[in-house]
# Entry
Amino acid sequence: MQIIQPHYHAIARTAQDYERMAMSGVVAVAEPAFWAGFDRRFPETFIDYFRQISEFEPTRAAQYGIRHFCWVAVNPKEAEDPVLTREVLKHFPDFLSRPTCLGVGETGLHKSTTNECDALAAHVELAMEHNQLVLIHTPHLADKLHGTLRVLEVLKGLKVDPEKIWIDHVEEQTIRPCLDAGYWVGMTLYPITKCSPKRAVDMIEKYGTERVLINSSADWGPSDPFTLQECILEYRRRGYSVQDAVELFHNNPCRFLGQNPKFDIQPIRIESIEREFV
Amino acid sequence: MLTPQQVIDNYFLENRHMLLEVAAFLDRFDVAVDHTGGIAGEAKKLDVIRASLEQLQRKDAATSRVERLLKLFATV
# Structure
């Protein structure tokens, strides 16, 4: 089965992950800009990071037959520094024009401070000006509900096309308001934080598959890219067909990411071939 | 040996995760009942899960909680 990993921090992962993903059906990954585990001090550090994910990482993925796409953003933690954020944002048009860059992300909120909200608004406005997709991170654990509602408030004050916005890391307490507002949502499968494969399938059964993306967890912390395959197995074990799984784990990413013409992987349908008897 | 605070801090997220999985399991059962109109077979396994949650609520630790639950699970 062909699978797309819509949210994959490849620079934190090994070549073996690419190899195993390729062997288990992954045909494309999309890498949002991420926090490095420490706060970067210079705009140039971001520029080099964006070069890494837009120039080098596609070559690494290509060795395993996997397409690599990326997003650019100042992540919510570092967006607490407004001067740094403004300087980095000046370089976005250059990167947004690059052949594998799909949009602005992951922007969003961490502690939902005023600076973070301002940075989120600036990112979204810039994306809309350049007709780009947006990937929005929502906070973890205790801040999840408050931060997600705050994201929705910030978006409500902006002129946005909800179809082009993906609000990520939704859970049971946050999925409904995001879907009701017309946005795409992402469920992120972590070994112990955020969502689990079984809970993701529960939410799919409750809310349906429309405007839903499912990501594994793949970063430098405790995470596992193969939670996505685990989720596919759980989905299939509940009686859904291979085509149903393709719709959710391949075609939905194509539908959202394909709004940017650079993402040229098309939705697929499995067909039976009539037997030819000699 | 860990301090009491270390036990909480080291294992909070893991236990949060496991409890959410139990909550999701119970929600999943309720949804299934709503969709199918009830349970045809016996629900003893579910009763044991619920009884185990009640056991965990008890504050006395005279006997190991794990031992009590293992004995409970051995009944199904």
About this structure: Residues 1-40 of chain B form one domain. Residues 19 and 64 of chain B are 19 Å apart (CA to CA).
